[in-house]
Amino acid sequence: MVALILVVCLAATPDVCREEQPPGDVASAMSCAVQGQVIAQEWLDEHPKWLLRGWRCRVGRAERAT
What we know:
Blueprint: E1 2-10, E2 17-20, H1 29-46, E3 50-59
Antiparallel strand pairs: 1-2, 1-3
């Protein structure tokens, strides 16, 4: 499994940042690299108070927040 990890910061307070993992996993590291920007934009469209600081693809078991 490959998970997309977004590093996002609050637009009003840019020093407040966190990692987000959009739901679902991508099939491979290559598809993550190709689809990452699209998935990140979709997440940002749904969360307008946040700005994208960066993103990465993590290979291995996905971590889920509880």
